[in-house]
Amino acid sequence: TSARLTLDPAFRIAPVEPRLFGSFVEHMGRCVYTGIFEPGHPLADADGFRTDVLELTRELGVTLVRYPGGNFVSNYRWEDGVGPVGDRPVRLDLAWRSLEGNAFGLNEFMAWTAKAGAEPMMALNLGTRGVAEALELVEYANYPGGTRLSDLRRSHGVDKPHDVRLWCLGNELDGPWQMGHKTAREYGRLAAETARALKRFDQGLSLVACGSSNSGMPTFGSWEAEVLEAVYEMVDYISLHAYYDPSDGDADSFLASGAEMDHMIRSIAATADHVGAKLRSRRQIKLSFDEWNVWYQSRFHGESSLEWAEHPRLIEDDYDVTDAVVVGSLLITLLRNADRVGVACQAQLANVIAPIRTEPGGPAWRQTIFHPFALTARHARGEVLRVEPECATIPTARYGETPAIWATATHEEATGEITLFVVNRDRHDPCELDVTLPAGLVPAEHLELADEDPSATNTAADPDRVVPRPGAGLRLDGRRAALTLPPVSWSIVRFA
Ligand code: AHR
After folding, report:
1. What tens digit of pLDDT does each residue of 319-368 get?
2. Do 317 and 465 have their domain in common?
3. 227-252: per-residue pLDDT in tens?
4. What is the atom index within ligand 1 of the atom nearest the CA of 28?
5. Which candidate, 224, 243, 219, places its Cα nearest to that of 292?
6. Which of 93, 171, 351 to mutate to test the pocket of ligand 1 (most atoms within 8 A of CB)?
7. Which residues form the domain of 452?
8. Residues 353, 413: one domain?
9. If you measure from the C-alpha of residue 347 to the centroid of ligand 1, how many angstroms do you get, rounded to a whole number?
10. Could you tell me the distance, in angstroms and rounded to a whole number, from the CA of residue 106 to the centre of ligand 1?
């Protein structure tokens, strides 16, 4: 097939928001314990943080990390995770039927994010708890000193306040699997009263209201509308969560996940704007896509199938080349919507549906999906440009006809550099892509993620089986560049 597109710095969407390259650390499986935190590991630092995982986190380019859940947060008592470690209780985590020893808590997380160079994004428990406990946590975390809870923090060895700016008002409370699941009306009231109180504490906090757990929920759309009617003037973001997989073996639909995510973003942005219109508000609510990834949910047999255990191996999906191409296309979608999506978090960071895998006492390695994330986070700089490829469409069972080529680009004013990110979803044919460039730019770097075997994965024994490789055959003719995109491929081309 063939396709063409134009890169023009005049067609701007919005600046690249650094918070788009967020990740997520939940107390789930081995994300925290033996993932980022493993005292006694040969590479653990004095805080018990795995330095190999810290290095990979920095290489991944993670700017923001959401914590501590996820489903976990809806039954979590933050007080259990602070103070002398020997005094911390072992609790039942009902979300994942796990034993939580609480050796890692708020202060450890803050110390870890500082070392990772990332901003913290904290989730509050609005499942089994409410306004009072949310206020107490914010006082403990953010107030300088001289009050009971801020002095408690100081007595725990943390003199300066953490000053967390971004707070989630609960997690997925539309889901019946959640401890303290609520109707939209119940949640809207609780979120509004919590937000009102938090803003009384600090007007500058950024707050995220829970949207739907996924676009297949029966209340998708109406949940957001009802919740936003209650909280519109007090929150900054509404959350979106989406996981994609080829559970029914339908690879063409799976490869079109980027287009589906685009549709979901537009639907929720329209819903938020509709509420804004009804309320005659001048504010615009942004979207926090704070859980997204490929997740083979069909391989997970539900929480009730789990035996009580301490940090068990949960949903440690092995990702292949196709999964990495889908992750690349989801990042393209987030950038294409940079005018509405203000926060995004890939779920999760280590071991649990994650770009980074570890073995207890052993190595850490990059899964295939690590690579498009790291390259996008590193090179998406400046302004996102509107890119509209002219290309063939591919029929899909789930989403109808979807474009074969999915692309975005960024432009850095200071250097003049334009970076193109492009996916060829076609499973059979390469695509000859013709790119029209502004005068004076020439290709500086061309990398692609593709493989003869789209099911190839990286393992502890062969951690670099799948890596981005220099793309071949990029031709330049004046202001036109031509390149061949292999079937099922993700590519990045930097023009300087
Ligand atoms: O990321 C795994 C789980 O997916 C999270 O705990 C929950 O919020 C979502 O359903």
Report:
1. 999 999 999 999 999 999 999 999 999 999 999 999 999 999 999 999 99
2. no
3. 999 999 999 999 999 999 987 889 99
4. 6
5. 243
6. 171
7. 3-8+385-495
8. no
9. 8
10. 19
